[in-house]
Every structure is written in C-alpha cells, then in structure tokens.
Amino acid sequence: MKYPILYKLVCVFAFILLAGSVSGKKPIKTLIVTGQNNHNWQVSNVALKKIMEQSGRFVVDIAVSPAAGEDMSSFSPDFAAYQLVVVDYNGDSWIEATRQNFISFARNGGGIVIYHAADNAFSNWPEFNKICALGGWEGRDEKSGPYVYWLDGKLIKDSAPGPGGSHGKQHEYVLNARDEVHPIMKGLPKKWRHATDELYDRMRGPGNIQDILFTAYSDKSTNGSGREEPLMFTVNYEKARIFHTMLGHAGESLENNPAMQCTGFQITFLRGAEWAATGKVTIKVPEDFPTETRVTFRLDYK
Ligand SMILES: [Zn+2]
C-alpha cells in the first residue's frame, strides 16, 4: 500500500520530535586546548575527545598550539564561540590577546575544565592561577599561596614554606567524597577505587576552592605527602563555572592508558564537564562505576 505524502511528512516530523526528546539536549560545544605539555598530549586530547563525543553530550573541536619554542603569535583560539573550554595544555606563554580572551570567556560565565597537568601551567600568570585555585611545579612556592589539604573534616590552608606540587609513584587509590549534594556528586559512591595514576600532592595556590568534591590519601609508603589531598573540586572565580580534576595522567598510547581508561575518571570527567558548561548534570552514574575495592575500565572510552 502507498502512503500519502502528508502522512509520511507527519511521521518524519514525529520521529524528529521523538529523537529530540530522547537525546533531550543540544550537544555542548566544546574546545580542547592542547599542543604543548610535559605529558603525552597526543594521547590525552584524543582520549578526552572520544570520552566526550561518545557520551553523546558534547561535540569537540581541538585547538593545537605551535610546538614549544615556536612563534606563539598566531595562537588565538576563539574561546567565546564555545560553551566549554577544556585546558589540556602546559607550555609556552600565550600572547596577551589570547590571555585576555580566555579571561573574558571565564568572566562572562564560560565553562572551564582544568585537567591534570594544566594546573602546572603559567605559574607567573596570576589570573590563570585563580582559575585553577591550586597548582604545582614550575617554580611554585609559598609566594604562590598556601598548601591546601583536608584535615579534621575540612579543607585547611597551610602557609608553611616549600615547593608546590609533587607526586609519589603511580598506584591505584581510593577517592573519598566530601560532598553529597553538588550536582556532579549526586549518585556517586562515597568511596571508589581509581586505576593506576599519579596522586598530585602538596599543591598550592590562591586556594579559592568553591566546593571540594573528592580527596584521596597520599600515603608516605608510596612517597606521598601523608596528607588527604584535594583532587577534584570546583573553583570560585567571577561568573565562571570551573571544574578542576587532577586525575588522568596520559599513558603511552590509547590502548595503554589506565588512568584515562578508568570508568571512574571518565564518568567524573563527563559529569564535571557537563556541570561546567550548563550548571546541571544529566550524565548517569552507570552500573559499572568502580566500588571501593574494584577498579573498572572502559577501554574504548565509552
Ligand atoms: Zn602526570
């Protein structure tokens, strides 16, 4: 039997409506900034893009800077064209116009994710350090701000002198939730075991953490600080929504990349990124999320 054209059109229209309500939302326009890092950025930016796009919630462009030591004057990403900027960069200074554009993006309420070694970057750029709240290495010391760590049920600031930023040997460790009501945290377990990764410790900076989400104990037996370290938090900076995760040291290849193949890394990254972009979290906590004793992987980043 032949269907009349109007009937077909109505069917197509209904399908579009239904598809729209199932996915529910327009994908979040995202820019990953990379191109220089003391880490394997050629792996990390691809892994992050896969994690984000395969979730169905993000569409991702990549801005690759010139190589270290090259002329940076042409590097000027159009931050304002995006809802979300993921910083996967630790390298040469940006030109003043690029810095100003990034600060304007933040001040105007942009969403930002500070990912792993991005908080090593730009130790001499005060506004960037406020966007990170905490940073490490690159000459950071007591002039950068206090050490911040979890003690007796709260974050404390410790102005003792000393270098900022270190980590012991890579190992599996348990993340401890410090918030149950933040949209990123709702439904996540109070404790979950992360795959082998660095555990950043002795970080210091302005310390303008807004909500502390997860800490982990940096054990002296793995050459850590002996403190409960803030590893995932939001940052209080102007009108920006900023999610900072210190997890996710990139491996040697997409296939051998346990810290980023960890289900817990991927899901917390997605939820933090969605919150930074929109202020809400719709990405579900899946059945295979790690438990306190069991690490789980999504080897194909989905
Ligand atoms: Zn690292």
UniProtKB/TrEMBL annotation:
InterPro entries per record: Class_I_gatase-like, ThuA-like
GO MF annotations, alphabetized: transferase activity
Key words of the record: Glutamine amidotransferase, Transferase
Keyword tRNA processing applies: no
PANTHER family found in the cross-reference section: GALACTOSE-BINDING DOMAIN-LIKE SUPERFAMILY PROTEIN, SECRETED GLYCOSYL HYDROLASE
SUPFAM superfamilies linked to this entry: Class I glutamine amidotransferase-like
Name this polypeptide is given: Type 1 glutamine amidotransferase (GATase1)
Keyword Ribonucleoprotein: no
Domain ThuA-like: 31-262
Superkingdom: Bacteria
Pfam families the record matches: ThuA
